[in-house]
Amino acid sequence: MLSPYKECDFSPMKESLKEDMRLLTGRIQKSIETLDQDNYCMLKEIEQIKESFLSIESRASTFYLNCYLSPFTDKYTELSISVQNLSRRRHGALIVIERSDALEPIIQTGIPIGAEVTQSLLESLFYPGTPLHDGAVLIRYNQIVSAKNILPLSHIIQPEPKLGTRHRAAIGLSELSDAIILVVSEETGKVSFASKGNLYPIVPQQTASNQMSV
Ligand SMILES: Nc1ncnc2c1ncn2[C@@H]1O[C@H](COP(=O)(O)OP(=O)(O)OP(=O)(O)O)[C@@H](O)[C@H]1O
Fold first, then answer.
1. What is the ipTM of this complex?
2. Burial (CB count <10 Å: 0-12, 13-18, 19+), residue 184
3. What is the pLDDT of residues 106-147, one digit of tens each?
4. Spatial contact of 152 and 176, defined as CB atoms under 8 Å apart
5. Would you list the domain boundaries of the chain?
6. Which of 111, 132, 153, 166 to mutate to test the pocket of ligand 1 (most atoms within 8 A of CB)?
């Protein structure tokens, strides 16, 4: 397998983020200057600044995730649409994408599946109450290898908010391997991914293609 870092050229995205951050800095500076004006209400401005931050975060996380995954699977689109749908329905999910490190020695293997990754199969596997919905789905290249896998939990104490076991399992596997683990929270619908012991939010953005994006 190729290294994802060789595949991705981060510089155009970084340039574009720098430009957006400069614009945002200018905007915040202007807001500070107008703050002392009588009768000036900043609420609208704060809302717009928050939206700009979210847009920057959203674009960056989509870019990184795509870079990390695309050398190892052609199914980024299927994965992204599935997690958005699971998120909207508040169906909890844990999806492991294997990269260079073999995962079977690290995880407790569940039920073999051996089918091509499709949006409908992924969403069905996490349908609440169905026999395979608990645990993690393992994806290798373009195949769903297995479901109901048990991942090692992270024992590192995370700063608040306290994380439940689904999120700790995602972080735990990412501490021991180079896998990328997508998590959909059943409680909040929030989507995140774990990589190298960190959990990163994926901020949804309404796009025409309905793809996962920051
Ligand atoms: N070690 C593990 N390996 C794989 N899946 C796990 C593991 N631990 C928990 N899970 C999954 O997470 C579910 C429980 O999630 P829990 O509510 O404890 O965590 P959470 O991080 O708060 O997630 P959510 O935000 O979805 O509620 C279990 O039913 C199971 O499907």
1. 0.97
2. buried
3. 999 999 999 999 999 999 999 999 999 999 999 999 999 999
4. yes
5. 11-68, 74-201
6. 166
Query: From start to end of the chain, where are the E strands?
Result: 93-97, 111-116, 136-140, 143-149, 180-184, 191-195, 198-202
Instruction: In whole angstroms, give the CA distance from residue 19 to residue 180.
Output: 29
Give the global pTM.
Answer: 0.86
Q: Facing residues of 181 across strands?
A: 96, 194
Q: Which of 165, 181, 199 to mutate to test the pocket of ligand 1 (most atoms within 8 A of CB)?
A: 165
Homologous superfamily, domain 74-201: DNA integrity scanning protein, DisA, N-terminal domain (3.40.1700.10)
The answer to whether 185 and 92 are in contact (CB under 8 A) is yes
Residue bearing tokens 């294997």: 98
DSSP 34-63: HTTSTT---HHHHHHHHHHHHHHHHHHHHH
DSSP 23: H
